[in-house]
Design brief:
The chain is an alpha+beta fold. About 30% of the residues lie in helices and about 20% in strands.
């Protein structure tokens, strides 16, 4: 039985992945459940397991290559099975979710696109006919370009230098859409389909590249050379800079934050929290347990209590309803070398502070080594971001849909505070709540902050069972 191995979509934000390493090689026997490869997602490096048994007959994607989710990357089958039909059916699955047929793979020349292109160039029908009959020199280059786009087999003859023939043949296999009439802004620039694909992926203007192929045609090596240039001159500056390709994680952060900040109406509420009692509690716990409770643990416990007392904050906007979540699942932003990840502590209201401490410690360690599974960093109903260790006094967090609220925590500073007729030193920190105005209003967010603040300023509450909330809390919905 033939098993198609595709790049999996492991998270909601994942659009592509990188094949880090193949653990099985062509010709090796594979059993269901065996690890085939390591895949780098937008958040972690995960194992790709086989869903069928047989022989790894074909590996279609080399190590280190970025692949769209859903694209065929390998084929597992018995040694005597014919896999040619499988390879021909879906060579480029990501661009067409319905699959690409054999007919689409090698499109035949069609007069329709040529006619349309000539109309767009401003020629009259009479001029088109005359040009076709006489093959005037001033139209020769355009006809040659059209033949490359519509007749891959003929165009390949012009690409013998610099391995351009291989680019054209590969592009017919991998990018059938490249062989169709080109109506993009780059139309008119002589470039191989592989060069166009790479330039589009890297955001490079083909008009700025000098081609090294026949008659100045731009090939993939020309575009790669531009990418590999060590430095570029920054406009208006004497300094030099370097373009660094985006990691999968940075691409995901760009997509998610853009989709959140633009359409979601944010509003922000800031308050100041006294941390003197909480710091005394941490020192007492260190004396008793020989290991202190981190501030992050206190913040998560205080947020869990506040959310339990104000469940209207633990919601998501769905368009025509507000979904109130059954559990409190808090995500903690953890900084990594090339971005950040948000491991999620599940059912925070059902755990005491020591259980939270153990769970948070384990998640953070595995997050920094990129060993989290997708269900451990997805699905948070509320999130906390703490930049206090970097001496950031105050900041605001961008909401991560579908969360309706997120808490940004600044540094704990020692400042003079008036108490009665005296001035005393006090540990204070600022926290800012970001809210989705489609789901929440200002008074709701303010009441949540009151509960959060009270739990930290009177930290004994952090150790009390949730079943016995203090009577001074306002638990009524707005």
């Amino acid at each position: 039985m033939i098993t198609r191995v595709v790049m999996p979509k492991l998270t909601d934000t994942m659009e592509e992945g990188v094949v880090v390493a193949w653990k099985k090689h062509e010709g090796e026997t594979v059993d269901s459940g065996d690890v085939l490869a390591e895949i780098e997602t937008d958040k972690a490096v995960l194992d790709l397991e086989a869903f069928g048994s047989g022989v790894l007959r074909k590996v279609l994607v080399p190590e280190g290559e970025t692949v769209k989710a859903g694209k065929l990357i390998a084929v597992i089958a018995e040694q005597d099975e014919d896999i040619e039909a499988t390879l021909a059916e879906t060579p480029d699955a990501p661009k067409d979710s319905a699959g690409t047929s054999q007919k689409d793979k090698a499109p035949q020349p069609s007069p329709s696109p040529v006619k349309d292109e000539k109309k767009e160039s401003g020629k009259s029908k009479k001029e088109q006919v005359g040009s076709a009959k006489t093959q005037q020199a001033d139209n020769a280059k355009k006809e040659q370009e059209d033949s490359v786009k519509e007749k891959p087999a003929d165009g390949a003859k012009d690409d013998q230098a610099d391995n351009a023939k291989k680019e054209q043949v590969d592009s017919v296999k991998d990018e059938p859409s490249e062989t169709k009439a080109d109506t993009s802004p780059a139309h008119g620039i002589k470039a191989s389909p592989r060069a166009k694909r790479l330039a589009e992926k890297q955001g490079i203007d083909l008009s700025s590249i000098k081609g090294s192929g026949p008659e100045g045609r731009i090939i993939e090596a020309d575009v790669q050379g531009r990418i590999d240039q060590p430095v570029t001159q920054l406009a208006g500056q004497g300094k030099k800079g370097k373009d660094i390709p985006l990691s999968q994680m940075r691409k995901a952060i760009a997509r998610v934050t853009t989709s959140s900040k633009a359409p979601v109406p944010h509003f922000y509420l800031t308050t100041e929290v006294g941390m003197d009692q909480a710091e005394r509690l941490r020192k007492q716990m260190e004396e008793l347990r020989k290991s202190p409770l981190s501030l992050t643990v206190l913040f998560v416990r205080a947020a869990a209590l506040a959310l339990a007392h104000h469940p209207e904050i633990n919601v998501s906007y769905t368009g025509d309803a507000l979904r109130r979540h059954a559990t409190i699942d808090i995500g903690i932003a953890v900084a990594l070398e090339d971005g950040l990840i948000t491991p999620v502590i599940r059912d925070c209201a059902g755990k005491n502070i020591l259980q939270l401490a153990e769970g948070i410690r384990d998640l953070i360690v595995r997050a920094k080594s990129q060993q989290l599974t997708p269900d451990e960093y997805a699905g948070a109903t509320f999130s906390i971001s703490n930049l206090g260790m970097y001496e950031v006094e105050n900041f605001i967090a961008v909401l991560m849909p579908p969360q309706a609220a997120s808490l940004a925590i600044g540094a704990v500073n020692i400042i003079p505070v008036a108490r009665g007729n005296t001035i005393q030193r006090s540990r204070r920190m600022k926290v800012t709540l970001s809210c989705d105005h489609r789901a929440l209003d200002g008074a709701q967010g303010a009441r949540f902050l009151q509960s959060f603040k009270r739990a930290l300023e009177k930290p004994l509450e952090l150790f009390l069972p949730l079943d016995d909330p203090p009577t001074h809390h306002n638990v009524a919905d707005q």
